[in-house]
Amino acid sequence: MTAQHDGRPMTVMVVDDHPMWRDAVARDLAEAGFDVVATAGDGPQAVRRAKAAGPDVLVLDLNLPGLPGAEVCKEVLADRPELRVLVLSASGEHGDVLEAVKSGATGYLLKSASTEELLDAVRRTAAGDPVFTPGLAGLVLGEYRRLAGEPAPTAADQPAVPQLTERETEVLRLVAKGLSYKQIAERLVISHRTVQNHVQNTLGKLQLHNRVELVRYAIERGLDDA
Predict the structure, then answer these.
(1) Could you tell me the domains of the chain?
(2) Strand pairing category for 35-40 and 107-110
């Protein structure tokens, strides 16, 4: 069965400096129906090939020769902000996780994950869901809360907050609490597609790029506690 994204095969790129691991991940993804459009073994090569191949999801190791994974993430997203990045790392160190998320990664999975967990994480990452190995999601939310407590340097220059509808605010509050689109749809008795539409509309209004930024925005305004 082919993994679909917007009605076409989902494209993925795998970056890891260990050839056997890289090939194994690429093979697992291809066998599950993903279209593996590129692979790379070092940082500079990863940036070049990601820009050329334009995958839906970049599966990225952090420990890369030539250019660290976090820098690869920043460079690629500066060129293609719609790209989703799933970090697949052997490190569960808090500093590595936070650096990856601050660089724009949508999710962070440890290499101890099973093949099924990886495939599910890639699918969810493509859908815009933040995916974290259990235990890391709370760390990331905690960091966003800490950042939210710091005064924003450009607060005075920011335009008035765009008006969200009551339903958009409701969806945003549930996103901030960590619910998946499926769970939000069930909670509000609306379709999965409607939830996605509300999130896309909210991203557009707030000029944010992805769900991770949306969660931070919501936490900054205390919506996760409401």
Answers:
(1) 9-140 (3.40.50.2300), 164-219 (1.10.10.10)
(2) unpaired
